[in-house]
């Protein structure tokens, strides 16, 4: 049961990081192309920066999960 929860947590964090990578790449391309789609460029940049920060947070969570799993083996 505990191993299953840890495995699910790892998978969920990995999936979130993967999706954030896609989002960041799309946002980066939109910023470069100035493709704002109805918002200002400043707002788009804020969204882009927020996605990068969110990626850092999830990367930290993933590191904690991996360290925890490493110490328990």
Task: Give keywords.
73 residues; mainly alpha; 2 helices
Outline the structure in words:
By secondary structure, the protein is mostly helical. The chain has one domain (2-72). It has 2 helices and no strands. It has helices spanning 2-33, 41-72. It starts with a helix and ends with a helix.
Write the layout of secondary structure elements.
Layout lengths: L1 H32 L7 H32 L1
Helix pairs in contact: 1-2
What order do the helices and strands follow? HH
Largest sheet: none
* Helical residue percent band: over 70%
The count of β-strands is 0
Principal-axis shape equals elongated
By secondary-structure content and strand pairing, the structural class works out as mainly alpha
Percent range for β-strand residues: under 5%
Number of domains: 1
The Rg value, from CA coordinates, equals: 16 Å
Q: How would you concisely characterize the structure shown here?
A:
By secondary structure, this protein is mostly helical. It has one domain.
């Amino acid at each position: 049961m505990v191993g299953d929860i840890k495995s699910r947590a790892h998978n969920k964090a990995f999936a979130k990081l993967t999706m954030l990578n896609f989002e960041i790449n799309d946002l980066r391309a939109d910023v470069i192309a100035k493709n704002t789609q109805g918002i200002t460029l400043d707002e788009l940049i804020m969204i882009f920066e927020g996605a990068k920060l969110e990626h850092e947070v999830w990367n930290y969570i993933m590191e904690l999960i991996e360290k925890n799993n490493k110490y328990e083996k």
